[in-house]
Each structure stands twice: as structure tokens, then as C-alpha cells.
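User: I'm preparing a small set of examples for a lab meeting where we compare how different chains pack in three dimensions. I only have the primary sequence for this one, and I'd like the structure in C-alpha cell form so I can line it up with the others. Please keep the answer compact; I'll paste it straight into my notes.
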Amino acid sequence: MKAKDRDQSLSDSRELDGSYDPLTGNAPSGQSKKTIKQRFLKLLPCCRPTAAPSIAESNIEDDFELSTVCHRPEGLDKLQEQTKFTKKELQVLYRGFKNECPSGVVNEETFKHIYSQFFPQGDSSTYAHFLFEAFDTNKNGNVSFEDFVAGLSIILRGSINDRLNWAFNLYDLNKDGCITKEEMMDIMKSIYDMMGKYTYPCMQDDAPRDHVENFFQKMDRNKDGVVTIEEFIESCQKDENIMQSMQLFDNVI
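Assistant: Understood. Below is the C-alpha cell output for the 253-residue chain.
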């Protein structure tokens, strides 16, 4: 029974990264099982073989692969049902995710490191922390491939309401159902820190506070000092610039 579960787990993972044909149960033509295994093991710094493994080592490699990859994602069909991505798009996303995170999950420190590479001119650590919290829906300190594509599906392919709800959840740091000025200030400051001091035009030190004041002037309809989800969605839908920015993501992948 354990061997059967192991085979199923391996096939789900290989189906995702394109190294498994779900119709025949075999690797696609031009790639042997051994080649696929070697390619996967080369992703791991601690296990780059100097020569092709012998047939006798095959079982050891299988066991090592299973013990190294501590999380295996859902099957391709299930992920396609749960998101708005095609099978091909999911395979492309999974290859990239597995390249950065061979263990199958990413913790916050690794997430911050990956994110920092996109913003070398500033400090993206605080904003990356907020973003990680939004992706980590299970609150277990790790983001799996399922978590990642679920969030990405909303951001890139979700309805306007879905995207706005996701953005509100990002800004609502303590998850109490409303955004305070302090929360918005933390978010804005993290964004300005991430962009760095050498942007053009140069940002003033009081720019984050001014941005927060403008945000609340637009969105805090009843002037009670907090922005609710209803106020947030209604205000965003009436803002032409925000609506246009939402549509920029439609064809990213």
C-alpha cells in the first residue's frame, strides 16, 4: 500500500513538471526515467552527481527523491479545477517553483531572498513579509505550490471583486476586517522602502504619510477612521486608475 502511495505521489509531481504523461504513465519521448531523475537531482546543491548513476542505485535515488521533496502538490487535474490556469500554464509555473524551492514549499526567509532579487535597489523584506502572510493561507509558516498558484490565480485571473478582496486582505494586517491608518502606513512605508531612495522622481520622506491621507480621504466614507471591505471595494471600483491597473495583469502568463 505504501509503495502504491509513493508511486501515485511521484506521478502527480512528474505530471506537473511535464516529465510524466498521464495518458500512458510513461515519460515523454526523448527523455528516459533516469534522465528525468538526474535533471531533478541536479537542482539540489548537495546532490549533483559527477557521473550517471548505475541501475543498482536507482532505488536509492527514488528514496532520496522522496525524502528530499517533503511536500508533493495536488494532481494536475485538481489544481486546474481549483485555479484559472491551464495544464500547460501550471506545468510552467511548477517548473519555476521547483527550481527555486526543490523541497516543494518555501519558508518566509527564502521568499524574502527571492523577492529581494527583483528590488536590489531597496529593502523589500518588510513588504515581502506582508506578501508572504497573504500567500500563507494555512498560517503554517510555509507556502506550498498549491498556496502559490491559488493566490496567483486570483491576482492574475480572478474577477475584479476577487482581486480587490485579495488586496484588502493584504492591507488588513491583523485580519480584523478593516484597514486602519497605522496598517496602511506600514504597507506604504514598506513599498517606499522597497523602491529605494534612488528612484526618479526622488520621493520625499513624507510621501508615505501623504499617500495614506489621500487613501483615507477617498475611501473612509463615513469618516470613522477605518476602511471596511465594502468601502474599499466601492471606492476602488469608482477609481478609473485602479481599475486600469487591475486589467494590466490579465495576460501576464
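A couple of notes for your slides: The CA atoms of residues 188 and 208 lie 5 Å apart. Confidence is low (pLDDT under 50) at residues 20-26, 28-69.

User: Perfect, thanks.
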